[in-house]
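[job 4471] stage=fold_predict status=RUNNING
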Amino acid sequence: MFHVNKLPGALPDEKPIGLYRRHPITILALIISFVIVIVLPFAAYLFILILHPTYYLNQQLMAVFVMFGGLFFLFVIMFIYQNFLDYWLDMWIVTNRRIMNIEQNGLFSRTTSELRLYRVQDVTAKVDGFVRTMLDFGMVFVQTAGEKEYFTFEDVHHPNEIAKKILELAEIDRKEHLDEAMEAIESTEIEHHNAIKEKTARGLEP
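[job 4471] inference complete, writing structure tokens
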């Protein structure tokens, strides 16, 4: 479990509840691409060796093959690495006070947004398709009061459980904020009442 102190702008009495990423199957194409990248140069080497056994005896041609093979590995592995970072560093964090969305954009850019739980109005889980239904992953849409935009969890595992948990936490957080607001109102009323009494008492003094 992650530590709440590592979160930006940690709130008082904030406790971690869950950290969610997209389901691993969403990077299946990336894994397949990685396997192809590893196998393809060796397959090309064997193919040329079978068709032209003397090709590698020419040092210049061999140098060209090695150079282009190295460039191929470099660019493709960089592409795969960037996409893996995009998967791994994109996350949704739920605490007992707020929801955070951390989105990685490329290698050197990151966007962080957050939503206080007491502002949550509705949470909807959506699972579409055979694969998502069988593996139980999908979307979670969090609707806030007074806003049209959704706070969206993308392709997360167990979306119905996440939606239920967020609703429960939001209800608890709303009650706590309501209690705080009522206490503040009562305190203000008492102070105002005491001030009136003091003024009245001073006015009655001879």
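[job 4471] summary: The chain has two domains: 13-23+91-198, 30-87.
[job 4471] exit 0
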